[in-house]
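Handout, section 4.2: multi-component inputs.
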Amino acid sequence: MAAAYKLTYFNSTALGEAIRFILSYGKIEFEDNRLAYDDNWPSVKPTLPLPYGQLPILEHDGKIAYQSLAICRYAAKQAKLVGSNDWEDLEIDAAADTINDLRMKIGQYHYEKDPKVKEQKKSPLFEETLPFYIEKFEKQIEKNNGYFALGKLTWADLYFVSLLKYLNYMLGKELTDGAPGLRGINEKVCALPQIKAYLDKRPQTRC
Amino acid sequence: MAAAYKLTYFNSTALGEAIRFILSYGKIEFEDNRLAYDDNWPSVKPTLPLPYGQLPILEHDGKIAYQSLAICRYAAKQAKLVGSNDWEDLEIDAAADTINDLRMKIGQYHYEKDPKVKEQKKSPLFEETLPFYIEKFEKQIEKNNGYFALGKLTWADLYFVSLLKYLNYMLGKELTDGAPGLRGINEKVCALPQIKAYLDKRPQTRC
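Output:
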């Protein structure tokens, strides 16, 4: 029987990996449909049911979902990685959105095409933005018993760890260097049996 | 007695207005704490309890929440503007995130400081991005009985309408021109008695 869920994304971590992590954590079977981002992509793209032209999408029961964070939140409810009331879910959502803000800021540097502008963006990112977020994250993790929210494992932790390879790739350095709280979350999440099993079998990709 | 919720944002619509709309719709009393974005702001900012240096924040029961979309989602649960199962909430979340994507793309043009780069960004935004999103939105609204999701009013509709003044300001034109579906949502939301009452009393601001 086909899996109840089909995730379509590129053969990379980036915006698809958190969904893979969360579904794996919840032992929810899914077809991990990985597309090559290569010369064929422009001809493959129009054949896909993409509501707003973007990946990832999640197919389930004849329906199609889009927007990676919205899909993560849905998957996290199925995997029991959410809070126990509305305010707790707000705390998790805010943490995930803040991690995503940092991801976008790093992306604005990494994907800048003009080498001169990219050079101008380097110092503000590495000397200001990154230390600002890391200091705030470390304080938040200290307050939350070694996690991003609620003093326990939530999908915000899986979201961060799943993005780390991609963030490190874009930065050209280890984001968690000198950040024991973030390193601790990475170690704890990677040691979860379901995540470890997924990591052992996932295709090796550059980012 | 003080209101159970205190929303702190600038005296403008932008990222705070959706929360004001949603709380107003739900008849949830809140203190609408509006700050001037003026010469005093740099000295006011450090006195505020801002977890990541950003507004809006929502204070409730001695706790502080941040991230506008996460706060909207929380408020929408209190105001009964959400779906009736996880997949329905995913559909609303995806619509809101897509509206937010467009808001960010418009902001990347509007806030560009280099006049030459801004000019370069103009045509892709007005000739490609905007028509792309509007066409997709119109189809989605047609499929959803005149709303963004679920064929009925949800917080995605209030989110869009609350942002419209700000988006029009950044674009320098009416985003909904030639988009009957979006205009219809705007009319329906503004005609809701609680929203109308809020609009009648809100301070007049430039954006």
